[in-house]
Amino acid sequence: MLGPYEYAVWLICTLLEAAVLVCAAKKNALRRYLLLNAYMAVSVVVSIARYNILSHHGYSSNEYLYFYYYSDFLLTIALFFALTSLYSHIFAELEAGRYIRIGAVILLSGTALFSYAVVQQSSAKLVTHFVVELSQNLYFVGLVLTYVLWAAVLKLRETRARLIQLILSMGVYFSMFAANYALQNLYHNRVTLFAYLTPLLGCFLPLSWTYAFWRIPEDARLVPSRLAVVPR
Amino acid sequence: MMAGFILVCSVVLLLQFFVSYCRSLIAASAKQALSPEVRDVAGIPRAASGEDFVRVMQLLQLCPEPPEDRSSIQAIGAYFRLLSFLRGTLARMVPSMHAWTESERGHCAYFAAVALERRIAFSRGMLAQQMEN
């Protein structure tokens, strides 16, 4: 059963996701960051659909459970492609868009195969466990990809402040979720703590993107080497 | 075993991304000059130091906040606490780290002062709107 805290965080998160779209539209960044905004739009739609199913079937119903995990799986894949769109921004001058798309599909297929191999040996509800396993693994793959992208930003001396903030916020988001999933796997008995923590972590990405679209102009520049933990 | 490995990697990368993200927020505000009025209110006559941060944050809480400000101020607050923790532990053994944490804490205080300036302007704007109505 969801309490006032869960409902409040859910509502805030959905409003923030909508706020990202509004800010992006107001600052003429909807098309420039199309996949990022598409991800936020899908998140809003999924959130409304989840609420609809929850109010009709209840929290412990199979309908809600299946919809929750399958929609989460789709959102993770959407976020994965949103991340690859950031690669396209960074490597735009090298005209590497096609290779990035092919690489993303290969990586996604590889992660899917790995996840299938993991659940195949130990699971009765194969498809459902596969969906959950793949979502969790994609967060870690996303984290590694964001780190590679950040390294490319530093190497290529990318200076677009908004793009840098979007990449860094994605890095923080992926690492928080990857750590959260790893902790959940290590400490199964602390379910209550994770029930509080996980929805709160979900608010970070829309909050940081709202800030990036609203406060940082597209032409703002900064020196990325000054942001690195180890000075370059 | 696998979960432990993922946890360690994630926490290390989280720290890296978090520090860089906070520094990108600070870098954006570092270019903005503070008005003499805000310098006076915040008690920052010249360069901001880490000691100013708590006072400026208290002043910030007195002003109505624009919603888009919230995440950045919370992130910098968490970054400041992380720096203070490092200053009280690791930096005691590594002198160069002590200087670095102190300089970063000063940047955090400057960021908060810039946010204070923005909030004062926001409050004045709201007041002007009310007067018009």
Throw out a few tags for this protein.
heterodimer; A: 232 residues; mainly alpha; 0% strand; globular; B: 133 residues
What sequence of helices (H) and strands (E) makes up the elements of chain A? HHHHHHHH
Major sheet of chain A: none
What is the first-to-last residue Cα distance of chain B?
A: 65 Å
Tell me the Rg of chain B in angstroms. 17 Å
What's the pLDDT, averaged over the residues of chain A?
A: 89
Please tell me how large the radius of gyration of chain A is. Answer: 18 Å
Distance between the first and last residues' Cα of chain A? 50 Å
* Shape by Cα distribution of chain A: globular
pLDDT < 50 runs, ≥5 residues of chain B? none
Tell me which oligomeric state these chains represent. heterodimer
* Amount of beta strand of chain A: under 5%
Total strands of chain A: the figure is 0
The tally of beta strands of chain B, per DSSP, is 0
Q: What order do the SSEs of chain B take from the amino end to the carboxyl end, as H and E?
A: HHHHH
Structural class of chain B: mainly alpha
| Helical content of chain B (DSSP H or I, runs of 4+) | over 70%
Count of helical regions of chain B: 5
Major sheet of chain B, described briefly? none
The geometry of chain B reads as globular
| Strand-pairing-aware structural class of chain A | mainly alpha
Average pLDDT metric of chain B: 88
Any overview of this molecule?
The complex is a heterodimer of chains A (232) and B (133). Chain A has 232 residues and is mostly helical. Chain A is built from eight helices and no strands. The radius of gyration of chain A is 18 Å and the shape is globular. Chain B has 133 residues and is an all-alpha fold. Chain B has helices spanning 2-30, 36-42, 52-62, 70-88, 95-132. In chain B, helix 1 crosses helix 4 (70-88), helix 1 (2-30) crosses helix 5 (95-132) and helix 4 (70-88) packs antiparallel against helix 5 (95-132). Classes of the chains: A mainly alpha (232), B mainly alpha (133). Chain A binds chain B through residues 19, 23, 140, 143, 146-147, 150, 161, 164-165, 168-169, 171-172, 175-176, 178-179, 181-183, 185-186, 204, 207-208, 210-211, 214-216, 220, 222-223, 226-229, and chain B through 3-4, 6-7, 9-11, 13-21, 23-25, 27-28, 67-72, 75.
